[in-house]
Design brief:
The complex is a heterotrimer of chains A (376), B (332) and C (286). In chain A, 45% of the residues lie in helices and 22% in strands. By secondary structure, chain A is α/β, with parallel strands linked by helices. In chain A, a hairpin with a 5-residue loop joins strand 12 and strand 13. Helices cover 76% and strands 4% of the residues of chain B. The chains are: A alpha/beta (376), B mainly alpha (332), C mainly alpha (286). At the B-C interface, helix 6, helix 12 and helix 14 of B face helix 4, helix 9 and helix 11 of C.
């Protein structure tokens, strides 16, 4: 008799426990966590984690908690593809976020297509990603052309620019931005005097700077991440090149300003996001981020991207009523919500995100948002 | 084929497991690792001919990997040639590159050889990144078609699933191993070893050390070309990363840990190193540090590679099998 | 046009002198000891990080930190030599290459874990304003680096040619066994040489870390250029390495300025291939 009571109470407890412990919603995320972009990859994950914690604190989605499964793609195609395979086959994620670098995302995309698992790309901007097939692929950033449309004419008119020199990092992003922004400059009646490329990790920019000084442009346009950009700007100012400068890349990140110091003063930027956007969602995000990660300082665009990816997915899961991949994909397609990257965020028929973009200027060591407009 | 007679029990078990693998491996992710391992086996078996058998440390293998991959990709994407043609072209072009680069590098002494092979590989990487019209630049070229087997009237087959790719790479691996086996157990192979042991002595005995070294280099580069072609059509993508130094480090680790100078060594190394990141995935940010540390420790303390530690086990199994055979046959 | 040319030459020479310092350290280790040290870039990186930690975190005086940082790498280099290089001194080159590549990966990634991937600035007492000489601009850290490099080259040249230690080193590297028979403590010589080579690398890292930034992968490109310079200079020739550094710096500058910027790094690789083909003893070798 006693045995029966003990057994049935254990069984009862078991049943109670399992009925409360519902299956969590696993969301995969692939980012570069090692290597030279580790910091930015980690930042994206931090933003995603913040969103997950906030959502779970409010009870999760459909009564289930979100569980973030993090993988290191190293921004390398082979590793990223393996990470995607692992997330889908082993961890059985119904959706994943990734993979930061366009090259890595290109390698993960076929995996998503093959298994029919939706992939939400928060940061990559290459137009090649929007080539067919795109059924299960969604690209949040609007692309360089949108950034250019918002920032170039404004920069040209404000600074009365007639000629410009372009200096970009020698990768796909740098080349795309050179083309897109370059087209916009020409549309605004500006003559492009030179287009130069540098390797990521370059330390000696003097040859480029000397070349640029030789043609004496009215302004500069730069495509670079924090490390390269900081060195470039510092050396430009050291060499007496103080023309008005438009940039894209890590120019909204606080670590760029920290590195470049006073030399970053006055630089204009076109970006997907900046921490100074004055709407309630963004203000709350910046505050919460700095409370959650006090040692990291003001969030930049990568944490914002990670955060938005999670809330978009959570919203889609709610509307899909579950994690069935087909329903989830349809639900993501029909996304229409307010995110950090813009009110009324949605995906167009090419699964490209329709968001807002910002034009910024660095003043007194802080990023100032000058324009906040819808991308088109 | 007398090589079959030379295979020990251990080898047969591995071969059997290899062929039967798709039957019990159901996880797509694990299959991906097995395919990746196969790819690396081809790559390091080739490299080992230069490093393990002729004793020359080439740091340029990734250049031929990239050349093979891009050649195959470009031919299929732009000219719609059959896969077999693309594969052959990839191997040939990689071989020609190996001939040209080897002819230059092999004139130099060992230390310089190391650096100049690296220099060539780095130049190729820069060319790949900058020659955007040809290679698609830093982004590479996505949308590379999968391999097809087309015999008019008989077969029209596209390699689609992991299992298809697995068997494709398995066939390539076995062909590659067989070629290496024949090479090593021939007069050419003996010349290689003579060069490795004492190049001056070999030269004084009339061995054309330059010619044989070059031959080894070319063969090795062709292996890399084949591997590159496979990867291009497996990932359906080629990127300048193929020319990068990261894969070179992986190859060196495989050869060092597995054991150079034998055929099985690199295979063992490839299997261990391919599986390793999966175990290390938990260690996340320490993963690469552990990689480096392992390389140092293994080089210092297990310089001949783990394969040599395996020999006693393999031999024990072999003698057990022989005794079993004898008992069984004597009982009939 | 002429202005451009002169500016390129001047800038190239200044940066080239810093390259030269990297080459000089490797000359000791690769040129004289024949150790293919792929971890050389990481010794360079560690020097920079030690000084960064001392100055930025522990608030030690900049110049004192340089001395302490160099001391730290001196010890570190000695430990590396003792535990990882010495055991394979007579082993084939593949072993040394593998060990140093392994060390390089280990040090690079451990530095990434310890200090993080964000590049750091070394706070320094040099004013940030640049000096204008005619139409070229130069900053004080660069002048400081140039002077220090010249000083080190002279010091090392004197050490090798005129001191007893230098004589012992030359004897050891020419014929290890004969030197041992003559009573020279060969083990000690190897240890000192490697340690000194490491310290010179660290100094290059500290100077370039001051001019630019400090980050865990800063040694990658540096080590390649160092190998190129050692070969160009003629293995074992310090003065040759110094001038080769300057030639490389100027060539890169002119190449990037007048030809193409994307292939800037290829300049060095092409040069080393040409040198090895047509003048393998180096531009300055005997």
């Amino acid at each position: 008799m006693k045995k029966l009571i003990v057994l049935s109470s254990i069984a009862f407890l078991f049943v109670i426990q399992t009925s409360f412990a519902q299956e969590p919603i696993r969301v995969g995320i692939i980012q570069p966590l090692t290597g030279s972009i580790a910091l930015d990859g980690q930042a994206a994950v931090n933003g995603a984690k913040l969103a997950v914690e906030q959502i779970n604190a409010k009870g999760g989605v459909l009564g289930r908690k979100i569980e973030l499964v993090v993988e290191d793609g190293m921004c390398k195609p082979n590793e990223t593809r393996a990470a995607a395979e692992k997330l889908i086959a082993k961890d059985k994620v119904p959706v994943f976020i990734g993979a930061f670098c366009s090259t890595a995302s290109l390698a993960a995309k076929p995996v998503a297509m093959k298994y029919g698992i939706p992939m939400v790309n928060a940061i990559s901007t290459s137009p090649k990603l929007l080539e067919d097939p795109i059924k299960y692929y969604f690209r949040m950033p609007p692309g360089e052309r949108a950034l250019a449309k918002a920032s170039v004419k404004f920069f040209v008119d404000t600074n009365k620019v007639k000629t410009v020199c372009i200096l970009a990092v020698n990768d796909d992003w740098g080349r795309n931005a050179t083309k897109d922004f370059g087209d916009l400059f020409e549309e605004s009646g500006v003559k492009i005097l030179s287009k130069d490329l540098f390797s990521h990790g370059e330390t000696d920019y003097l040859p480029f700077i000397t070349k640029v000084k030789g043609v004496n442009p009215d302004a500069m346009f730069i495509v670079a991440e924090a490390q390269d950009g900081a060195l470039l700007i510092k050396q430009m100012r050291e060499q007496g090149l103080k023309k008005p400068t438009l940039a894209t890349g890590a120019i909204v990140e606080s670590h760029f300003i920290k590195l470049a110091g006073a030399d970053s003063e006055g630089i204009y930027g076109g970006a997907e996001w900046a921490p100074g956007i004055q709407d309630p969602l963004n203000v709350a995000f910046v505050k919460d981020y700095m409370i959650r990660y006090p040692q990291l300082g003001t969030p930049g665009k990568y944490p914002a991207a990670g955060y938005d990816a999670v809330i978009i997915i959570a919203d889609a899961v709610k509307r899909a009523g579950g994690t069935d991949s087909e329903k989830l994909t349809k639900a993501i397609e029909q996304t229409k919500m307010d995110t950090l990257h813009g009110t009324n965020f949605r995906f167009d028929e090419r699964h490209r995100g329709i968001a807002y973009v910002v034009v910024t200027r660095i003043k007194d060591g802080k990023v100032q948002v000058i324009r906040h407009v819808p991308a088109d | 084929m007398d090589c079959l007679k030379r295979l020990k029990l251990v080898h047969w078990v591995v071969i059997l497991l290899a062929f039967a693998a798709p039957l019990f491996v159901k996880s797509g992710y694990l299959m991906h690792i097995l395919i990746d391992t196969g790819f690396f086996i081809i790559l390091v078996t080739g490299l080992n001919i230069v490093i393990g058998y002729t004793g020359a440390l080439s740091l340029g293998q990734q250049a031929f990997l990239g050349i093979g991959g891009y050649t195959s990709a470009l031919l299929m994407k732009n000219y719609h040639l059959s896969y077999l043609s693309c594969l052959t072209a990839a191997a040939l072009l990689a071989g020609i590159a190996g001939l040209l680069i080897g002819a230059v590098c092999l004139r130099l002494r060992s230390h310089y050889f190391v650096i100049v092979t690296l220099a060539f590989a780095l130049i190729m990487e820069l060319v790949c990144i900058n020659w955007v019209d040809l290679t698609g630049g830093p982004m590479g070229m996505p949308g590379i078609p999968s391999p097809t087997l087309y015999i008019p009237g008989l077969v029209n087959f596209t390699f689609q699933t992991k299992t298809h790719y697995y068997y494709l790479v398995l066939v390539m691996v076995f062909i590659g191993l067989y070629v290496t086996y024949r090479l090593i157990h021939s007069r050419i192979g003996r010349a290689f070893i003579a060069i490795r042991e004492n190049e001056e002595l070999a030269k004084s005995m009339g061995v054309n050390t330059f010619g044989y070294s070059l031959f080894a280099f070319v063969i090795s580069s062709m292996y890399a070309g084949v591997a590159g072609s496979f990867q291009a059509h497996y990932l359906n993508l080629v990127t300048p990363d193929m020319f990068g130094f990261y894969s070179m480090i992986t190859m060196l680790l495989m050869i060092a840990i597995g054991g150079k100078g034998t055929i099985s060594g690199p295979i063992l190394g490839a299997i261990i190193i391919s599986m390793l990141p999966e175990f290390l995935r938990m260690a996340e940010m320490y993963r690469l540090s552990i990689f480096g540390f392992l390389l140092v420790i293994v080089t210092l303390y297990i310089p001949d590679g783990i394969i040599y530690k395996m020999m006693p086990i393999s031999n024990a199994l072999e003698s057990w099998k022989v005794r079993l055979w004898r008992t069984l046959s004597s009982n009939s | 046009m002429f202005e451009q040319f002169v500016t390129h030459m001047f800038n190239g020479a200044i940066i080239g002198s810093a390259y030269g310092l990297m080459g000089v350290g490797l000359t000791l280790i690769f040129g004289l000891m024949n150790v293919v040290n792929f971890a050389h870039g990481e010794l360079y990186m560690l020097g920079a990080f030690f000084v960064y930690s001392l100055v930025a975190i522990l608030q030690v005086n900049y110049f004192l930190s340089i001395l302490l940082g160099m001391g730290g790498v001196l010890v570190f280099g000695g430990i590396i030599e003792r535990f990882t290089i010495k055991p394979i001194r007579n082993a084939p080159i593949l072993m040394t290459a593998l060990v140093t590549i392994g060390l390089s990966i280990f040090l690079k990634n451990t530095a990434l874990v310890i200090w993080g991937g964000v590049p750091k600035k070394i706070p320094n007492p040099f004013p940030s304003a640049s000096l204008k000489l005619g139409y070229v601009y130069v900053t004080q850290p660069r002048i400081f680096a140039l002077l220090l490099t010249i000083g080190v080259v002279i010091l090392l040249h004197y050490l090798i040619k005129k001191t007893k230690l230098g004589k012992a080193m030359r004897a050891t590297f020419e014929n290890k066994d004969a030197a041992a028979l003559m009573g020279i403590r060969v083990d000690r010589i190897y240890l000192y040489t490697f340690a000194i080579g490491s310290v010179v690398a660290a100094m290059a890292g500290i100077l370039l870390g001051t001019i630019y930034l400090v980050y865990p992968t800063m040694g990658e490109l540096a080590v390649l250029k160092a190998f190129i310079i050692v070969i160009m200079g003629g293995m074992g020739n310090f003065v040759g390495a110094f001038f080769s550094g300057i030639i490389l710096g100027i060539s890169e500058s002119l190449g990037a300025g007048f030809i193409s910027t994307g292939y800037k790094d290829a300049v060095g690789f092409v040069i080393v291939i040409l040198v090895l083909l047509f003048r393998p003893q180096g531009l300055f070798g005997e």
